[in-house]
């Protein structure tokens, strides 16, 4: 593990109230993300991956436990975090340029600086020629790339990606995986990415958080210590894949990381419910 | 750029559904069928003498009257007065309605205080206020403006509020994550997102305002297209009344068509603007 933890998720639990009934969606989630690390979160549908990203980005602060960014508890959305949603969520009435520029709306940049940053980020995701196009004129992959540019333009320290490549064909997908790696290495961005695809997780990340559903829990954390560029056909690559698969499908919960087995200490001493 | 041509392709493709000439005939021709049929029956009715000419003048009589009124300037001056009233009243009412609508749609507090009363007021036809407003403002230009503005204000406020409240949560969340400034939020997210609903409200508003204005002119004024009709009726010149009806219908239709064209223009981003 690298030196500093940028993101520290400590004993996070989340309960939704549906029809007056509490539904526990996340229970005692615990993992860390180091500076410039690429972490993927994997787990079957409904195990709370999107919910977890919503908590990290600050859209929902009604949870138990702590999510610390640089040691500070997250209380609201902030410039240090960017998110690419599962659906790209570009505003359909704004051009690609205008959509990306929204990422800098809260900053004090001059219009010229905004323009330059937008152009640079469209370049980064290879959409330089499509700044004036509207979202409905883009393919799914292009729209996802535009959404990535919008999330990156404010230079967040951490980029959250919710299955950004989920709905794409395998060729586009492989291409965008390499682009993500390129952006990660070039921009020195920390990334937390949700995916359903084990191979994608092993190909991209430094660490894989494997979750299980009902309620969403961390089943295990698998480190991936392979050098880049990775060869999907190599024996050690396949070995990591097998390990993730094993922890995902059956096997007893794995613990490769330092997830505490006892109740974590709650800093402010308030009574909190854990599983 | 080579990539640019890719953008236009789906739009060009769409036109191929039917041959353009057939589309054009049905687009411009079919809406004319009904008016032509009415005109024919009207002509036959007057030629056969089904109704006395004092009650139903022939289409050609009406056409002659129309030309007379046009040449004498009666229609033009009347229409100019009416259009200025609509313009001023609409501008006042629409601006107020938009502002209140944004407040209603964005703030639950404002909605709780004002929403129910506004919806109750909306149930009273604009003309129901006329006797009351006549007592307050007397006869004259102010009365016209107030009635027209009121007719625009309520539907635009309500449709703006509804449009804003129906903006998908996922776009609001994007705005929150990007921490958009209030101004950007309103101009780039809230208003464009609510635009289709706002525009249906604007069209209703303009329709109501036009009707309200004509009635006010007929009942309580001495100028404008509506007054021209009252004047024709007092003279027992039904042809003048019919000319007034036709002018009102055409102008109202043109305003609605203009609004629809404006909306299409503003909504170029939609995949299916036809
Ligand atoms: N706003 C909400 N109110 C109530 N329940 C919710 C809400 N949002 C999510 N849930 C529930 O929380 C659970 C986890 O949802 P979430 O979207 O986080 O899953 P996910 O792991 O992202 O699934 P997928 O892989 O299908 O995207 C689901 O059972 C869902 O029904
Ligand atoms: Mg999800």
Explained architecture:
The complex is a heterodimer of chains A (about 280) and B (about 270). Chain A is about 30% helix and about 25% strand. With about 280 residues, chain A is of the alpha/beta class. Chain A has a domain at about 1-45 and about 60-75 and about 195-265: Rossmann fold (3-Layer(aba) Sandwich). In chain A, helix 3 crosses helix 4 (about 140-150) and helix 6 packs across helix 7 (about 235-250). Chain A is globular, with a radius of gyration of 19 Å. The two termini of chain A are about 30 Å apart. The relative contact order of chain A is 0.19. Chain B is mostly helical and about 270 residues long. In chain B, helix 4 packs across helix 10, helix 6 packs across helix 7 (about 140-165) and helix 9 (about 180-220) packs antiparallel against helix 11. The chains are: A alpha/beta (about 280), B mainly alpha (about 270). The interface of A and B includes residues 57, 134 and 150 of A. The site of adenosine-5'-triphosphate (ATP) has 12 residues of chain A, from strand 1, strand 2 and helix 1.
Give the secondary structure arrangement, pairings included.
The complex is a heterodimer of chains A (275) and B (274).
Chain A: E1 5-18, E2 21-34, E3 38-42, H1 49-57, E4 64-69, E5 72-73, E6 81-84, H2 96-101, H3 111-124, H4 140-152, E7 158-162, H5 170-187, E8 190-195, H6 198-204, E9 207-212, E10 217-223, H7 235-249
Parallel strand pairs in A: 3-8, 3-9, 6-7, 7-8
Antiparallel strand pairs in A: 1-2, 1-4, 4-5, 9-10
Helix pairs in contact in A: 3-4, 6-7
Chain B: H1 2-14, H2 20-48, H3 59-72, H4 74-106, H5 108-123, H6 130-137, H7 141-165, H8 169-177, H9 182-220, H10 224-234, H11 238-266
Helix pairs in contact in B: 3-11, 4-5, 4-7, 4-9, 4-10, 6-7, 7-9, 9-10, 9-11, 10-11
Bound molecules: adenosine-5'-triphosphate and magnesium ion.
Residues 49-50, 86, 162 of chain A line the site of magnesium ion (MG).
């Amino acid at each position: 593990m690298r030196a500093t933890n940028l993101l520290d998720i400590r004993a996070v639990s989340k309960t939704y109230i549906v029809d007056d009934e509490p539904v526990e969606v996340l229970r005692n989630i615990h993992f860390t993300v180091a500076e410039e690390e690429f972490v993927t979160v994997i787990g079957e549908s409904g195990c709370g991956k999107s919910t977890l990203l919503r908590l990290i980005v600050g859209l929902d602060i009604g949870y138990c436990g702590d999510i610390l960014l640089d040691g500070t508890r997250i209380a609201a959305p902030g410039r240090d975090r960017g998110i690419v949603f599962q659906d790209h969520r570009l505003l359909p009435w704004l051009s690609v340029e205008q959509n990306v520029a929204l990422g800098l709306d809260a900053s004090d940049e001059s219009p010229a600086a905004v323009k330059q940053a937008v152009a640079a980020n469209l370049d980064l995701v290879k959409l330089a020629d499509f700044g004036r196009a509207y979202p409905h004129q883009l393919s799914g992959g292009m729209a996802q790339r535009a959404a990535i540019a919008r999330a990156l333009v404010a230079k967040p320290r951490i980029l959250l990606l919710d299955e950004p490549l989920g709905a794409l064909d395998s060729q586009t997908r492989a291409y965008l995986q390499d682009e993500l790696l390129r952006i990660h290495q070039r921009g020195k961005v920390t990334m937390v990415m949700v995916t359903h695809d084990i191979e994608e997780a092993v190909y991209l990340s430094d660490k894989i958080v494997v979750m299980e559903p009902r309620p969403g829990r961390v089943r295990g954390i698998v480190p991936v210590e392979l050098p880049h560029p990775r060869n999907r056909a190599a024996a050690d690559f396949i070995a990591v894949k097998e390990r993730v698969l094993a922890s995902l499908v059956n096997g007893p919960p794995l613990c490769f990381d330092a997830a505490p087995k006892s109740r974590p200490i709650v800093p402010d001493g308030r009574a909190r419910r854990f599983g | 750029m080579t990539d640019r041509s890719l953008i236009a392709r789906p739009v060009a493709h769409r036109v191929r559904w039917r041959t353009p000439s057939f589309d054009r005939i049905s687009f411009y021709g079919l809406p004319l069928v009904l008016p032509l049929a009415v005109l024919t029956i009207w002509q036959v009715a007057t030629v056969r003498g089904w109704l006395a000419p004092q009650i139903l003048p022939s289409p050609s009589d009406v056409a002659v009257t129309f030309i007379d009124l046009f040449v004498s300037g009666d229609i033009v001056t009347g229409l100019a007065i009416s259009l200025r009233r609509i313009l001023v009243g609409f501008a006042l009412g629409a601006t107020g309605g938009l502002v209140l609508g944004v407040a209603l749609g964005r703030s639950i507090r404002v909605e709780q205080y004002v929403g129910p009363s506004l919806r109750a007021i909306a149930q009273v036809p604009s003309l129901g206020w006329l006797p009351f407003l006549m007592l307050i403002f007397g006869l004259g230009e102010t009365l016209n403006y107030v009635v027209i503005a009121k007719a625009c204000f309520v539907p635009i406020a309500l449709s703006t509020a509804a449009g804003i409240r129906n903006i998908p949560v996922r776009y609001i969340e994007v705005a929150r994550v990007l921490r958009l400034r209030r101004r950007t939020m309103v101009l780039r997210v809230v208003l464009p997102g609510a635009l289709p609903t706002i525009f249906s409200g604007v069209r209703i508003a303009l329709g109501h305002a036009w009707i309200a204005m004509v009635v006010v002119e007929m009942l309580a004024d001495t100028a404008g297209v509506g007054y021209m009709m009252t004047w024709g009726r007092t003279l027992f010149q039904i042809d003048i009344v019919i000319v007034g009806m036709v002018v009102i219908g055409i102008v109202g239709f043109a305003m609605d068509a203009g609004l629809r064209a404006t909306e299409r223009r503003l909504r170029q981003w939609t995949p299916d603007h036809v």
